[in-house]
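cron nightly-structures :: item 1 of 1
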Amino acid sequence: MMTDSHLTDAELSALAQAYGTPLYVFDERVLAERVHYLRSVFQEPLELCFAMKANPFVLPEATPLVDRIEVCSPGEYRICRVLGIPQSKLVISGVYKDEETIANALGSTQLPAAVTIESLGQLDLVEALANRRGERVRVLLRLSNGSQFGMDRQDLIEAARRVLAHEHLDALGIQLFTGTQKTSLARLGRELDALSSLMLQLERALGWRPKELEIGPGLPIAYFPGDDLDEHAFFTAYARMLASLAFDGRIVLELGRSLVASCGTYLTSVVDAKRVGSQNYAIVDGGINQLVYFGQSMAMRQPPVHLVSDRIAEQPRSPEPVERADVDAPSPDGGAELEAWTVCGALCTTNDLLAKQLPLPGLTLGSVLAFEKTGAYSMTEGISLFLSRDLPRIAIVDAGGRSRLVREGIRTDPFNTPRWALCASEQPNPHTNA
């Protein structure tokens, strides 16, 4: 189940005060509880692989909690090297693998846990580099679900034939990843049936039974109030399906969103409040460039957000309350009507809507809004260079409740400035204290 944040409003307010807004906060305690919960549902010998693309900033905290780390780009590989992530924990994946990254991975003192093979062309590259290494490199053959990722059955069987005959390759098993936010157990069941059928075909054709299945099931997150998802029941049902799979090797669940979404909170402050016609608008210093929930445009559904009770002290209060003639109008049940606000970001586009008609009694200039379940993708998936807005700071709250900054705010205007102009003057420092 999704773990509630450990952070109180007073603590969130203190973090906004200390580091400014907009701000991402990732809570190591919530992350650890989430991994513990997932392990309790998907019991041993099943293992967990963290797809680091979901949140590279919690990689140091996540690595001791999981069995593997999935790396899908040269940049992600370099991040792992800088952080000292054990090479033996890395699964080198991705639809495009450049020669330099694979050469570096196979040239290290430790071999990676596995290298995925997404095409016969990729196999050519890995074969050549494995020959140079002179040791057996473990590979996972990726099965496609009909998209550009992985191989169809015919090519996968041919790849398996070649790997089994190669002295420097070890045919570890099969990888399958077909999407994210999948809420159909029937669909997940069909995917497992396809794996069972493929394994039977491989055994008949080649006499080979995979030692491992790495499955990315795309487990769903109930992001929005009213989402019709009993997460625990869904996960428990899928765990039973995995347990009934006719396979006696190792199963590794590759998870990203499901692992880290619950550990994140995005803080953004109200910088302007006004009434236009019959609508109250709260303008915040963040926006859709920094806040992304899966499968929807912001404000199409009400996100998990609340008004933090304590304001940032430095922010001025509104000199005049926003006029609202019906703010005290009685509601049908006899109580007072809650004041509703449409929350908009700082981008100059009408698409920058974070929430519509959100009841936020007491909102004023300097108020801080806390958007929850933002531990996955928001910090990397948004349109971060649009309008040259600064990237937010990122803070981690550790197991002892102490916070530390893991990324400064970063100016994006140098990325959007023609190079000749930067060379003609002193190049600005991309880091900002704002």
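cron nightly-structures :: done
The CA atoms of residues 29 and 399 lie 5 Å apart.
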